[in-house]
Amino acid sequence: MEKDPQADAITTDDVRDAVAAGVLPQQHAQALLAFVAQSRQSPSRTDEESFRFIRSFNDIFVTIAIALVLFALNRLLSTISEPVSMLAIAAASWAMAEYFTRRRRMAFPSIVLLGAFVVSVFLAFADLLNFSDSVPYEDTAAAGSAIAAAIAAGIHWLRFRVPITVAAGVAALILFVVALVRLEYASTTVMLAAGLVTLVIAMMFDTRDRQRLTRKADIAFWLHMLAAPLIVHGLFATLGILTGSLSSTQAGAVLAFYAVFGLFALIIDRRALLVSSLIYVLYAASTLIASSGFRDYSSGITALAIGVFLLLLSAGWSHLRALVLRIMPQAARDLVPPAAS
What rounded mean pLDDT belongs to the chain? Predict the structure, then answer.
């Protein structure tokens, strides 16, 4: 049988793993990827915003098995005590992470196990605090549970270094702050501020790995996914755009903001910002189309228009980004990933 020439091919993920493990210096990895991209006459993988998620169907297979095990634990132990059930799920998630995350380095199962661990710790403490007579206000219980989840995320990071853990810990800290702020308007303001802080943290990781070769790029990806909805929702809620029906003027303002947001996403080469805040532009565009006399077709026209726009943007992303970076100052270009060759 003839051997598949691609079977032993080294992928970009292999190079990134080698850099993360300290086997290959980052500058050598950059030179290697640039040489391969040039020899194949293809764009650099940096511009494709790749991140570790699923490498084979085995990732999905293992994740399904993990979900069944955790579901079974919940069903069997919740009749005894809900906190006991949640703590058992946390312990089982940690135990399975010792093999599938620390030894096998499987991305998708690692993400699920991290989520199960942090969420189960949060729910366990929420149940314990709600049962306590010494906690008179539910926001206090939420704040205490959020701190427990943040600590759990920190401990998990020290052991397993799963990139999404940083975003999970930041989300828990944001929930802690929001739980302490009881006024609705102040909560949305805190949400907006938290989103901006999260975006700054994400940019710090991005600027330290402009070629997107190390774990820092994956950490930044998940932080961007968290920052975008916080910023968009916090801003629109603070301005009162999300209360009641959306006027044509407000819908136009939403679309204009999304255009500016999209330009920023293009500059820093992060499509995640557009995806995680897409629901708002869909709602605003649908409102504008409905107010123009096409109410019965507003959802279909909106989906078609936004879908075509995103397809065209994806097709021309590299060229458009290169044009935008060309007119930016050199100091700004030095902070973002280089344009694809």
Answer: 83
